[in-house]
Design goal:
homodimer; 261 residues; alpha/beta; FAD/NAD(P)-binding domain; 26% strand; elongated
Chain lengths: 261, 261
């Protein structure tokens, strides 16, 4: 990571570890367990987990979101070795090369167009015969001489030993298989917040991201959602860190206003 | 600062410097000039400054906010040496001591109550004969045995050479002067965003903070306000840094959707 303000260059794991140790040194206690359900219990919240229950006056959900995966051979093994879900993060590693972009929505075009600053050629692999992206993004993508479009086609395998060397493709109309040499595969087929346990509890957008106000408050007292799991997150580490601080301040205020000290 | 996630302990100046150098290494150019006016000019924005004009397609205002000052002798000189505008930041330095809190609103009570965790005694100095704070905060403050209230009284001077040793007070009813020994003075008489040049351009709250949406967008295309200058900022370094990243992403999207590359 090069874009977390104040820390010029660090890997994500080390940054997370530094944040964890810092918070623990201020008294935060950590339990690494999977939340299975969240239930309102009078003025408190019951958090059911795989290893017991917690009763809390306030809960800040920071469950994040995961990128949707293709689910094809090679994808998991080559992630970080040419398979990427973030062009802003990784496109610069493929200067002058030929890469694939998978997807046909706004994110695919937005990130694809960004990627043209670095690479020589982009093949956009899309399962349908037209894009879902907004008209202006489509126009810009079609006008870009570095971008070519491979329609009605899905990726069936990502090839490579140490790093990506190519993709296997299948045309959904003809059933024909083919392969293409590429140095990287950027996959933009959406993402899903890890918020199954919020279903029915708070309103979400159609993608499942919780609706919150400026203070990360849901419409249920004492329940906050911060970071990628909320609606309209900028999905950056620093914006999620800011969300967390905002939710903590709001929760502290809620506790001190509603419960005896 | 101990509360910027990922950087366990740093002074504010060094953190700002690190962020500046990091952004400049990514190509950001900096001009340190005072903005005097901001005007819409067709699809662009004209930024008038003390040293010339800038024409920009998008402007992100991060002018911040300043705490209101008492404006009394000793205040400026002893800031950071016992004079503080942030109990969360500084209360722990005065463990077991007697401190003054100036103000009668929510912030004064909220921060005062927080401060009771650390200090032995708090004298709340308030210019009126009742608090402006919400009922529940008043109730909690009056119930706290560490808090005493000095009504109808203003601070006329903050005393101390190397560090705060006391305050000079004047009773507004009787005109009587007195002094009180305290180790610190926490001042909570509001804050004002540095947004004079936004007046009439975008809606603000009654304190002058610009109204923005989740993406830091004002209602004027291409004009963003991030950080303490916007409404409902959590006023933390990390939340403002997150706001800035969010505004930058929104501005990039605005530029690429509305202007030729």
């Amino acid at each position: 990571m090069e874009n977390y303000p104040g820390v010029p260059s660090i890997n994500g794991f080390d940054l997370a570890q530094a944040m964890l140790e810092q918070a623990e040194s201020c008294g935060m206690e950590t339990q690494l367990v999977e939340t299975t359900a969240l239930e309102q219990d009078g003025k408190a919240w019951l958090v059911r987990t795989a290893e017991g229950e917690y009763l809390a006056r306030a809960v800040i959900v920071t469950a994040g979101a995961d990128y949707n995966k293709l689910g094809v051979p090679g994808e998991e093994r080559l992630t970080g070795r040419g398979v990427s879900y973030c062009a802003t993060c990784d496109a610069a590693f493929f200067k002058g090369q030929h890469v694939a972009v998978v997807g046909g929505g706004d994110a695919a075009m937005d990130e694809g167009l960004f990627t043209t600053r670095h690479v020589d050629k982009i093949s956009v692999i899309h399962r349908r015969d037209r894009l879902r992206a907004s008209a202006i993004l489509q126009e810009r993508a079609f006008a870009n001489s570095k971008m070519e479009f491979v329609w009605n086609t899905v990726v069936t395998e990502i090839l490579g030993e140490e790093a990506v060397t190519g993709v296997r493709l299948r045309n959904r109309e003809t059933g024909e298989d083919s392969s293409m040499d590429v140095a990287a595969v950027f996959i933009f087929i959406g993402q899903h917040p890890n918020t199954d346990f919020l279903r029915g509890l708070v309103p979400t957008d159609e993608g499942g991201h919780a609706v919150v106000n400026d203070w990360m408050e849901t419409e249920r007292p004492g329940l906050y959602v911060a970071g990628d799991a909320r609606r309209n997150s900028a999905r950056q580490v620093v914006s999620s860190a800011g969300d967390g601080a905002t939710a903590a301040i709001a929760a502290e205020h809620y506790l001190s206003s509603n419960f005896a000290a």
